[in-house]
Amino acid sequence: MSLRTTAYVTDVTPGAGVLPPRAWYPASDAKSLSLNGTWRLRRSATADAHDDAFAAPGHDTRDWAEVTVPGHWVLQGDGAFGSPIYTNHLYPFPVDPPHVPTENPTGDHVRVFDLPKDWPRLSEGGALLRFDGVESCARVWLNGTELGWFTGSRLPHEFAVGELLRPTGNVLAVRVHQWSAGSYLEDQDQWWLPGIFRDVTLLHRPEGSVTDFFVHASYDHRTGEGTLRVDSGVAGRITVPALDIDIATGETATVPVDPWTAETPTLYDGVLATPGERVPLRIGFRTVALEDGLIKVNGRPLLFKGVNRHEWHPEHGRALDLETMRQDVLLMKRHNINAVRTSHYPPHPAFLDLCDEYGLWVIDECDLETHGFTEQSWRDNPVDDDRWTPALLDRAARMVERDKNHPSVVVWSLGNEAGTGRGLTAMAEWIHARDASRLVHYEGDVDCRDTDVYSRMYPPHAEVERIGRSLDGGTRKRRRLPLILCEYGHAMGNGPGGLADYQRLFERYDRLQGGFVWEWIDHGIRHPELGFAYGGDFGEELHDGNFVCDGLLFPDRTPSPGLLEYRKVIEPVRIEGQGRDGSVRITNAHDFADLSALTFTWSYDVEGETAATGTLSVPALTPGESAELKLPEPPAAEGPEARWTIRALLARDTPWAPRDHVVAWAQLPVTPHRPPALTPSTAPASTADGIRLGPATFDARTGTLLTLGGLEVTGPRLDVWRAPTDNDEGAPWQPDARLGPLWRKLGLHRMRHRVDAVEPDGTGLTVRTRVAPAGAEVGLATTYRWVSDGERLKLTVSVVPEGDWTLPLPRLGVRLALPRADRVRWFGGGPGEAYPDTRSASRPARWTASVDDLQTPYVRPQENGARADVHWAELGGLRIDGDPAFWFTARRWTTEQLEAAAHLTDLTPGDRVWINLDHGQMGIGSQSCGPGALPQYHLHARPAEFSFVFSTRG
Ligand code: GAL
Predict the structure, then answer these.
(1) How far is CA 250 from CA 218, 220, 413, 432, 666, in A?
(2) Distance CA 765, CA 922 (A)
(3) Which stretches make up the Beta galactosidase small chain/ domain (predicted)?
(4) How far is the CA of 189 from the centre of ligand 1 (A)?
(5) Which candidate, 937, 338, 919, 408, places its Cα nearest to that of 656?
(6) What is the pLDDT of residue 637?
(7) Distance, CA 545 to ligand 1 centroid (Å)?
(8) Which residues of the chain are in CATH 2.60.40.10 domains?
């Protein structure tokens, strides 16, 4: 055994001693032994701190620590094994390929195992040792014999070990280095998490067992027939009982089938039987083609309603168990998502089985990103350096060979943000030659030289529309290709805004075949003091903060408002109409399925209360088809505010959601809301305490409201500030769209209120003020006009901007505080938060929530929780009616405290509840990475007038 031979760590070749890649399958009748579980771990700070004597049988590891495999050692041992590091694109080590730092955390892993009693005799066939994922470089020994080493963290690697096995006391030793030449190819925007993080399995390989096999299962939509052929390294037979297929490997059978699509994921169970093994197959017949400039499956174009999915678990990092993977798939299906890009590496192979089973289109992406080279204008980029090409081809082959038998995989992606170069071309050529049945994607190939789809990330709406109309130019080849947005809608913090506007474009222009929101889940790490940790919370010297929390799910997989918005925007049924004349138009927006899986209901709601319900008979429309239907006569007399709510529900239980799960809905207003009228009937009176007007008292000098019907009220007064969202703060590469810094520079977070006049008159009280930031000439002339009918109090706020306002306002409204409030009832949009460009899922009705429930727990605290279109709200004994409807927010801390907090645990309730009643809110946009809010969602400083009627109850 050699001493201190860690030179392989900087070797640009992919590894040594590893078997060629082959198809992955979960189980067959051949024996296998999971080596997951508790392993011994010795962590060292450098790659060569110890010689390799530990790999020898009999080496005493009793005083070593223990670690769970699959797992990342930095997420175990309460910090004793080092910490995670988060960077977006910067390499956390000097860029000097292929060298890595001397400080190279290294985990020596040892696992001793016996073969199970029923394990075949060692002379019967061979055995393989399979690693499904190790970050970033592993060297492996079995019973003291070195098997080899490998890189390619999220790819499988197998070794032949048959002749080395013993019945008992086998010693498997794995030395894992955090950094290797391979790290240069794995610069994805995520935590750096070393370890054996996917399964380790020993597979018996009987004589004549399956080596590699390729299931070709196509579908001809003209004949309704599927054609099956299975190529196999070892000859055998294929049987598919449900289809009466019994053919030899290499032979072809063509039979009538139900095709596989993400909407109708029909799988046929089959078996590949060779002399030594029976491998179960789940066969989905489908044909992917680029035709007429469109991606078509089974002859029909499809629209991706996708998400980018990193593997993430808040405690286990990228070591996901099957139930977590299933939860992801179920959550996607329940939120109308039909596609996943496996950003930015092949996922655990079992995830793709779930995609086959439940139905999701998959863009399977190779484990390749070299983004950090952008810092040096891509000089020395490994993907344009022939020395690295074998490693790139190895990665492409390991992905394609592993995943080629999944019907869900329709597109191969070469990787992400790796610049351009010969290595990428070589990968694309290899993939095209190996698998002509799928398309090739790579966003960095702007000319589409090597790819079959034009792909962009974060283009503004206007540009997407230009591409939709084919006005974008580009190479001849590109002009003939469809566009997909491999990333859009950056779901960092509050947002993303503008999804509905993108969806309208996707639906309008054939060339636009949809996109994938960035990204599925926040990568927050559960932390004893901070709730969820993000970049910098582990003392990293280089990090990108909470840019790692940009998902549609919170780290614990609770759906965020962004996911609820997305679900609404991508509903597979469109329901439109005129509530007044009772007509409704239903359109099937699926690509493949008819509407026979759905039932439709209506309800007639008066002032947010359901007055009557019924069912609506909708024909089983084919994709793209519409039907005009008539709603029944309004069941109730016209109320003050009436509307129809139409819902499309699952007619039966499905594998992914129960019967009655709501797939789509719409509201059709019938009669508008009538805000309460208030006729002023009392005049203000001076008292010893100030000014009395109806139920209220005011400070005579400042005109400030002091009490209202016995309630102590702070404010209301004009407020324009919100705790900037991640999108307000903007990405460093969007300097003109970084509203947060621009707003602070202008001073909108520290407005001064100057009282110019307090004027009681015969019918009320007028308070004239000017609200403006120190150091600037802009201001808002603000007049508060108070009147009362003796019982209730009405405030009308008039705002006239002064000076040259070039920036939009964060919000415009009033802020007040009440001493206490717990339950909130309101009539307006809900149940969740909404902002001007994120309000599709906000449904007007009567809602109840506690103040705490109104908060959206963004990992980094920021503006959140506004309810849209609120006509009235009740809390803490106060009722507020708005004219017009307003944005309602209530929280137990101030905006300033919210803004100062870095984690949710920084927020502690004070003794008051702070309420914002807003006439306007600035849109949210997506500029934490992409474009800002569209102009129609900007809150411009313009003359405005809005009013509220306050009354007290109880
Ligand atoms: C993209 C990148 C993703 C992620 C995203 C921002 O450029 O492909 O990995 O970094 O930006 O969150």
Answers:
(1) 15, 20, 28, 21, 52
(2) 30
(3) 692-951
(4) 6
(5) 338
(6) 65
(7) 14
(8) 213-287, 578-671
Q: Is the pTM of this model over 0.85?
A: yes
Return the ligand 1 atom nearest residue 188 CA. 9
Q: What is the CATH number of domain 213-287?
A: 2.60.40.10
Q: Which residue has the tokens 């370890």?
A: 195
Per-residue pLDDT reduced to its tens digit, 57-79: 999 999 999 999 999 999 999 99
Task: Name the E strands within 623-747.
Answer: 626-630, 642-650, 662-671, 685-687, 690-693, 696-698, 705-708, 711-712, 714-719
Ligand 1 atom 3 nearest Cα:
189
Q: Which amino acid is at 458?
A: Y
Which distant-in-sequence residues (6+ apart) come within 8 Å of 476 by Cβ? Answer: none
Q: Which CATH architecture has domain 289-568?
A: Alpha-Beta Barrel (3.20)
Say which CATH architecture domain 7-205 belongs to.
Answer: Sandwich (2.60)
CATH hierarchy code of domain 690-952: 2.70.98.10
Tokens at residue 536, please?
């910098």
CATH number, span 578-671? 2.60.40.10
The full DSSP string for 815-882 is: EEEES---EEEEEES-SS---TTS-TT---EEEEEETGGG----SS--S--PEEEEEEEEETTEEEEE
The ranges of the chain annotated as CATH 3.20.20.80 are: 289-568
DSSP helix/strand/coil, 426 = helix
Query: 729: closest CA among 941, 463, 495?
Result: 495
Residues of the chain below pLDDT 70: 1-5, 636-639, 954
Which residues belong to CATH 2.60.120.260 in the chain? 7-205
If you take atom 11 of ligand 1, which residue's CA is the nearest one? 929
DSSP-derived secondary structure letter, 595: G
CA of 492 to the centre of ligand 1 (A): 11
Q: Which atom of ligand 1 is nearest to the CA of 417?
A: 8
**Given ligand 1 and candidates 487, 547, 928, which is best to mutate, with the most ligand atoms within 8 Å of its CB?**
487
Ligand 1 centroid – CA 838 distance (Å):
21
Instruction: Determine the 3-state secondary structure of 571 from DSSP.
Output: coil
Q: Are 368 and 392 in contact (CB under 8 A)?
A: yes
- Per DSSP (E only), the strands in 337-453 are 339-341, 361-365, 409-413, 439-441
Ligand 1 centroid – CA 502 distance (Å): 19
What residue ranges line ligand 1, CB within 6 angstroms? 88, 188-189, 344, 416-417, 457, 487, 490, 518, 547, 550, 929
Give residue 189's Cα distance to chain centre.
14
Sign, CA dihedral 350-353-357-363, equals: positive
Task: Please list the active-site residues.
Answer: 417, 487
Q: Which atom of ligand 1 is nearest to the CA of 486?
A: 8
Question: Which one-letter DSSP state was computed for residue 75?
Answer: G
